[in-house]
Amino acid sequence: MNSFTLTQATATDEAVRDLTSHDGAAYLGGGTNLVDLMKYNLERPTHLTSLGLLPLTDITSLPDGGLRLGALATNADTAWHPEVEKRYPLLSQTILAGATPQLRNVATNGGNLNQRTRCYYFYDLATPCNKREPGSGCSALTGPNRVCGVLGTSESCIATHPSDMCVALAALEAVVRVQGPDGERTIKFEDYHRLPGDHPEKDNTLKPGELVTAIDLPEEGYADHFTYLKLRDRSSYAFALVSVAVGLKMNGNTIEKARFALGGVAHKPWRDQEAEKMLEGQTASPDLFRQVAAKVFAEAKGYGEDSLHNSFKIELGKRAIVRALKQATEMSQVVNPNVFLNSNP
Amino acid sequence: MSQTIATPPTVRLDSDVLGKPISRTDGPAKVSGAAKYAAEFGVTGPLWYGYIVSSPIAKGKITKIHADEVLAIPGVQHIFSHENVPSLAWFDRNYKDDVAPGGSPFRPLHEPEILFSLQPVALVVADTFELARYAASVLRIEYDVEKHNTDLEASIGEAYDAPRGKTGFMPPPKPKGDMDKAYQEAPHKIAGEYIHRAQHQNPMEMFATTVDWLGDGKKMKIYDKTQGAPNVQQYLMKIFSLSTDEARVISKFTGGGFGSGLRPQYQVFLAVMAALELKHSIRVVMTRTQMFSFGHRPHTLQKLRLATDDLGQIQALEHKALHETSQFENYTETIVNWAGVLYPSPNTNFDYQLAKLDVYSPLDMRAPGAATGSFALESAIDEMAYAANVDPLDFRLRNYSYEDPIENKPFTSKRLDDCLHEGAARFGWDQRNPEPRSMRDGNQLVGWGVAAGCWDASMQKAAAKAVLSADGHLTVSSATNDQGAGTYVIMTQMAAQTLGLPMKQVTFNLGDTNMPAAPVQGGSWTANSVGAAVKDACQGIGKKLLKLAQKMDNSPLAGVDFEDAQFVDGYIRANEDITRSVAIADILAASGEEKIEADGKAGPNPINMLKYSMHSHNAVFVEVKVDEDLGTIHVTRVVNAVAAGRIMNPKTARSQVLGGTVWGLSMALMEETYLNNELGRFMNHNYAEYHIPVNADIHKIDVIFVEEQDDIASPIGVKGVGEIGMLGVAAAIANAVYHATGKRVRELPLTSDKLL
Question: Residues of the signal sequence (chain B) (predicted)?
Answer without folding.
Answer: none
